[in-house]
Amino acid sequence: MSKPQTITQKLSWLHTWGGLIFGWLLFAIFLTGTLAVFDKEIDHWMKPEVPAHEVSQLDAAQRALAYLQANHAGASAWNIGLPSERSPGLTVSAGEQRRGGGEQLDPRTGERLDSRETAGGGFFFRFHFTLNLPRTLGIWLVGLAAVAMLVALVSGIVIHKKFFKEFFTFRPAKGQRSWLDAHNASGVLLLPFHLMITYTGLVIFYLIYMPAAVDALFDGNREAAFGRGPQGGESREVQARADGGQRQGRGIGEGRGERVASSVVLTDLAPLLAEAERAMGPLSGLSIRNPGRTDARIEVRPVLGNRIELTKGQSMQFDGVTGQVLRAPNVSRPVQLTQRVMAGLHFAQFGGYPMRWLYFVCGLVSSGMIATGLVLFTVKRRRRPDAEGVLAARMYAVAERVNVAVVAGLAVACVGMLWANRLLPVDLAERGGWEVRVFFGLWSLTLVHAWLRPCLAAWREQLGLAAGLCIGLPLLGMVSGGDGSTRLLLELTTLAIGTALAWTCWHVGRPAEVKAPRRPARATVEVA
After folding, report:
1. Which residues contact 5 (CB under 8 A, 6 or more apart)?
2. Which residue among 165, 232, 365, 486 has its CA within the 20 to 30 Å range from the CA of 517?
3. End-to-end distance of the chain based on CA atoms, in angstroms?
4. What angle do CA 423, 428, 431 make, to 5 degrees?
């Protein structure tokens, strides 16, 4: 009769197999999430035509306003994306679009820039929580992976009892032992970060995962649940006057998104922007509804997450003629405030660049922890391939190839997308879509390569390719243009990552040091 398994043994089995099944997905989520920490900086690097000179937001807004008045005087709405510390571009659009977009302007002159179309750093951000799948499906898959991550963390805490010993223990060039030491050390070092980032990621979409409370208490009305609407700062009387003015002011051509221009002068933007910045912090942009009419409204938005409470959806509204404040920023209810703070912790939009760099380094170490766990699974079974049967041996061989494509291949795909941004023709139709196709094309080719080549050779070749692409990126940037501190920041970072990948490539496949057996002591013969 076999001895029953202990709780530690059961959790070890759960940690091992759950880590393998979801580890591939989690590595992609963590790596792209790490890159998304600098999504705005990647956006700027992928648009080298946009100058990096510092311009005050008021000056940029005035130039954008002049451009819109000259080129879109009949539009029903104007939208302006203002330059900020992380994103120096000035964008404008006409019509009912929000959050900037449309045309790129030079913040210094207000002239239109012909910047290339690109998927930008936003691709990595979207992939991080949707896996480039339909939004709801992607969010559910990422949520399932996050739950598996929490299970792996809790089970890892139970089965690895000697935290401090494992944190200070690392034996390089010892094969399987080195992978285990790296996995344990990175897991122990960043355990609080892993727990925080995984849990807060689930909290962000809690209404998708657990909508029952809102459905039961508010009949599914999320606006009522979060206290949005007129009670959030704008009186019902003011709102009614605004709605009435909009109805009376509709004229010929409005149904097509355009209207007849009027001579009503828009209020001065300077005091409005100053008031909004005092109330909400750094600003990201503004929208002007019904410009040139007596019922004009100006909505000013803050930079997303300039404080620990994520300020998504926050804004101030002003009368476009008198400059009177019509709606102050909403005050979050306790439940909403808690969720927004959790989201702010996850997105790391607060604390400036020091906090951003801290999250970036922690994300890289977390990705390394997942990668070493995946490698450890196959390394442990490589020495005894037939111990669990022929079918298991074949499955482990497949897992080893997938490990190469997921870990090294994803690195090749990510940096390859940056190369595609500079090498694809600037006037290529649907250029952003082609950058994404290059990403997935390269990733698919790495899986084919891993399947055709011996495993260790595939590791060395793909890690070497990723290292070469990273180290060569500054040279590509030098040849293809771009300026400013953003380019320097990104290219130095890729150079450092490329150096680390080159070091890893050099060490992969090296034989582990074998400790020489101790020689027995010589026997001594006593002479009488």
Report:
1. 13
2. 165
3. 60
4. 80
Q: What is the DSSP string of 12-39?
A: HHHHHHHHHHHHHHHHHHHHHHHHHTTH
Amino acid at 325: V
Token digits for 292? 């040139």
For residue 121, give both structure tokens. 């750093």
AA letter at 499: T
Inter-axis angle of helices 431-452 and 390-404, to 10 degrees?
140
For the chain, list residues with pLDDT below 70. 1-19, 97-101, 160-183, 222-262, 305-306, 311-313, 381-389, 509-528
Instruction: Tell me if 197 sits within 8 A of 366, measured CB to CB.
Output: yes
Which pTM does this prediction carry?
0.82
Q: Is 516 helix (H, G, I), strand (E, B) or coil?
A: coil
**DSSP result, 226-265:** TT-SGGGTS-HHHHHHHHHHHHHH--TTGGGTB-----PP
Per-residue tokens: 129: 């929580």
Sheet (strand 297-302) strand order: 112-113, 103-105, 90-94, 77-81, 283-289, 297-302, 316-319, 325-327
Q: CA-CA distance, 198 to 8, in Å (whole number)?
A: 23
| Contact present, 79 and 99 (Cβ < 8 Å) | yes
Per-residue pLDDT tens for 229-266? 443 434 333 344 444 444 444 433 343 344 444 478 89
Degrees (nearest 5) of the Cα angle 378, 383, 388?
75
Residue type, 464: G
**What would the DSSP string read from start to end of 422-476?**
HHS-TT-TTHHHHHHHHHHHHHHHHHHHHHHS-HHHHHHHHHHHHHHHHHHHHHH
Is the CA virtual torsion 150, 156, 159, 160 positive or negative?
Answer: negative
